[in-house]
From TrEMBL:
This is Zinc ribbon domain-containing protein YjdM. NCBIfam families: phnA (TIGR00686). It comes from Vogesella aquatica. Belongs to the YjdM family. InterPro entries: YjdM (IPR004624), YjdM_C (IPR013988), YjdM_N (IPR013987).
Length: 114
C-alpha cells in the first residue's frame, strides 16, 4: 500500500510524486504537497441563507423575493418552497428543481431555510 494521498479530483489511489507535486495518472490532476491541507479547507465551504442559517445539501428553502427567470416571462414568487436543494460552486450557489419552472440556479441571499 502506498502512503500517498488519493487524488482529490477523482479519488484515484494511483497517485505519484513529481518533485514538489502529487500527480494523478487517471485524470491528470496535479496538486502541491502543501496543497493537501488547502484542498480540505476548500471542501468546508459554508453557504448561508438570508438570515444567516447554515444551508446543506437536501435542505428545503423558501424564496423571500420575486425572482425573474432569465430568458423567460416566468417569475418565481415570494413564498415558493424549494425542496431538496444541492449546493454548488459559483455565483448561483444553490441548484434545485422548482415545480412549474424546472431546473434552476438560485443565490443563497434570496432564500431562507424552511
Amino acid at each position: 500500500m502506498s502512503a500517498l494521498p488519493n487524488c482529490p479530483a477523482c479519488q484515484s489511489e494511483f497517485t505519484y510524486e513529481d518533485g514538489s507535486l502529487y500527480v494523478c495518472p487517471e485524470c491528470a490532476h496535479e496538486w502541491s504537497k502543501d496543497g493537501a491541507a488547502a484542498v480540505e479547507a476548500e471542501e468546508t465551504r459554508v453557504v448561508r441563507d438570508a438570515n444567516g442559517n447554515l444551508l446543506q445539501d437536501g435542505d428545503s428553502v423558501t424564496v423571500i423575493k420575486d425572482l425573474k427567470v432569465k430568458g423567460s416571462s416566468l417569475v418565481v414568487k415570494v413564498g415558493t418552497k424549494v425542496k431538496n436543494i444541492r449546493l454548488v460552486d459559483g455565483d448561483h450557489d444553490i441548484d434545485c428543481k422548482i415545480d412549474g419552472i424546472g431546473q434552476m440556479g438560485l443565490k443563497s441571499e434570496f432564500v431562507k431555510k424552511a
